[in-house]
Amino acid sequence: MNKTLLILKQEYLKRVKKKSFIILTLLVPFLFAGVFALVIFLSINNDKKERTIAVFDESTLFLNELGEEGMTKYKFIPKEEYEQMKGNLKGSEFYALLYIPQDIYTNNMAQLISEKQVPFELNEQIERKLSRYIENDKRQKIIDETGIPDLEKRLSNTKTSIRLSTLKVSVTGETQKSSSAIAFIASYAMGIIIYFFVFMYGATVMRSVMEEKKSRIIEVIISSVKPYELMAGKIIGTALVGLTQVAIWIVLGIVVLAGVQSFFSPESAQQMGQSIMENQSQMSPAMAQAAETNKVMEVMEMIGNLNLPLIIFAFIFYFLIGYLLYSSLLGAVGAAVDNDEDAQQMVFPVTMPLILSIMVLFPIARNPEGPVAFWFSIIPLTSPVAMMARIPYGIPTWELLLSMFLLVITTVGAIAAAAKIYRIGLLMYGKKVNLKELFKWLRYKY
Amino acid sequence: MEIFSARNVNKVFADTKALTDVSISVNKQSIFGLLGPNGAGKTTLIRIINQITAPDSGEVLLEGRKMTRADIEHIGYLPEERGLYKKMKIGDQAIYLAQLKGMSRHDAVKSLKKWFEKFEIMSWWNKNIEELSKGMQQKVQFITTIVHQPKLLIFDEPFSGFDPINTNLLKQEILQLRDNGATIIFSTHNMESVEELCDHIALINKSVKIVDGQTNEIRERYKSNIFEVKYKGSFNEVDKVLNNQFKILNHIENNRLNQITIEYLHGKSNNDLIQALIPVSEIISFEEQIPSMNDVFIRAVEESNKNRKNE
């Protein structure tokens, strides 16, 4: 046991001290945080540039009045100035020229002349302003003609917009805000994370075994420790490297999330609400109010409403057991082969179920109750990835227990078989091995 | 006094016999040569001693007790195919390997430094193994084999990769280790070094032990009544008088000193030879030829192969 500990420590420190590990571990969360922050930043500070737009209003409908919106100002100019400026926009103080023709009322057309490509939002803003002005004007005319009192108010009350908010009923009858989009993302992400971890760290164990075999130090090592002590030290040491990485990511993730939260609330939540409100200022009051809710906070809340304890527990379980299963198999492969080509040939059949499960990840995340999802999450070699993809949606307890049970049983069997292959393979050189040969080894006594 | 023994060890791999009823006994503070052609089963026996493999039947004993896994801390093993971690500092891996043999980190560092000083390789401590030549790597490997002061040392072809100067250095070290109390099992194809170092040998051929005994005694046993005589006189006359009683294998004529190699035919003694020679020549020297280990090896293996065929 002492020696397993020694090997474990050696393997752990060797990997954790590696530059590539440190860089990857620190970089990934910042990369994620960076992307996340960028998206939010862009959605809040979308357009901060001050612009003044010159308006030549041939229709005289707008009465020198287009108001100010955000950072955009409108200034009405007479025809001569417009003609003069039309060809010479660059030198002027104006960002763009808006030409409102005589027949805008019937033709619904106007023109925006600018030097640079006009931002989509500005384009939209002007369209909205012009449309609404004419719309109101038309409506006012009808109201005046018919003379029905309060028509204006009654008409605007007819405006309806249905928003679907999904609630999930838990066993206790509580309803919680949930979002199928969040569950989908979580489901997909979980599956991929498990896949990468199992694959990456399983392959690490295999390479580590191969390195010892190829450098021929293996005979010295196993004359000091038992092969299974060596294997156990390697597998556990590498698992701890993985868990260290996850732990660092969780801590950094919490720090980043807390940072995001404090940065965007409460002041920034208001700011964000305002910007949403501005865009929708002409909508019905009810809608505007709904939009006021901080989107960021809402997402956070919905993440919080996933069954986090279950997800974390299942993640650790499936990561560890899945990793144990595949790393012992890959460790045996590493021991059986003595060159990279053979290793590649052997790795493929062994990791096939894992690759298959990542291929069906999308169908599973889309239809977590379907037969594909069911079978893949029950069959042991695919269940680490497939089950993780189902869990964010909620899962019947018996299915989860069955899947876990089968996985554990399979893993115990796989470790026993792998240990045997490992022991025989370590000192076997120059022999081309294939799966058939490995099955033969299982019957050897050594 | 016996420190290690293997008793009636059998081992079969899939379809080949690796060891058939092999027994050896190694005395304390001796150097025991384990010899045999390639594929004879030496490595299997060594691996059984190291507890890397288990015998199908039979047992191995250290100091009279059946060997257990714990005993491998008292063994130092230098395998024939050896290597070190490529991407690890030499000092670090030496410490690691010593710790795997049960040394504390503190003791390992202290002892390793002493050995590194002795071999004048202290400057390599922080280098990677890749920066060293093969011979240099062997030195490091040798130190890692003996650093934990094992009672029993097993060297499989220890001199491969060494230049003559370092081979000599290593031989001195091995003899010194023995004198300091270690027992050494030594496997090699280099018969010269066997003559030089081994107190006792066992020869294994095709899974069976065919020769076992003190090195000197075995050479005696394999001597075949061949003598080398130096004399002054004419070869023709010598040839004439020896003709019926002795078989002349070889002769070298030199104007001052002639030399013949002869084999005694049945029932002839030294006195018969001297009596025959005195009338025709002046005998300068007269010496029985002890076969080299090389001759013993070849003869023993060939005989054993012939016997097997006949069976």
Topology:
The complex is a heterodimer of chains A (446) and B (311).
Chain A: H1 2-16, H2 19-44, E1 51-57, E2 68-69, E3 72-76, H3 79-86, E4 96-100, H4 104-107, E5 111-114, H5 120-146, H6 151-157, E6 167-169, E7 175-177, H7 180-214, H8 218-222, H9 227-264, H10 267-279, H11 285-292, H12 295-305, H13 308-336, H14 340-359, H15 361-366, H16 371-378, H17 383-390, H18 397-426, H19 435-441
Chain B: E1 2-13, E2 16-27, E3 31-35, H1 42-49, E4 57-62, E5 65-66, E6 75-78, H2 90-100, H3 105-118, H4 134-146, E7 152-156, H5 164-179, E8 183-187, H6 191-197, E9 200-205, E10 208-214, H7 215-221, E11 226-232, H8 235-242, E12 246-252, E13 258-264, H9 270-277, E14 282-288, H10 293-310
Parallel strand pairs in B: 3-8, 3-9, 6-7, 7-8
Antiparallel strand pairs in B: 1-2, 1-4, 4-5, 9-10, 11-13, 11-14, 12-13
Helix pairs in contact in B: 2-3, 2-4
Order of helices and strands of chain A: HHEEEHEHEHHEEHHHHHHHHHHHHH
CATH topology of the largest domain in chain B: Rossmann fold
Low-confidence blocks of residues of chain B: none
- Average predicted confidence as pLDDT of chain A: 79
Termini of chain A, distance in Å? Answer: 22 Å
SSE string of chain B:
EEEHEEEHHHEHEHEEHEHEEHEH
How far the N terminus sits from the C terminus of chain B, by CA atoms, comes to 37 Å
Which outline of chain A best applies?
elongated
Largest interface chains and counts: A-B, 23 and 28 residues
Overall structural class of chain B, as computed from helix and strand content, comes to alpha/beta
Oligomeric form of this entry?
A: heterodimer
What percentage of amino acids of chain B are in beta strands? Answer: 25-35%
Strand neighbour order, sheet with most strands of chain A: 2-3-1-4-5
How would a textbook summarize the main sheet of chain A?
5 strands, mixed
Overall, the morphology of chain B is: elongated
Helix content of chain B: 25-40%
The DSSP helix count of chain B reads 10
Radius of gyration of chain B, Cα only, in angstroms? 24 Å
Number of beta strands of chain A: 7
Secondary structure tally, helices of chain A: 19
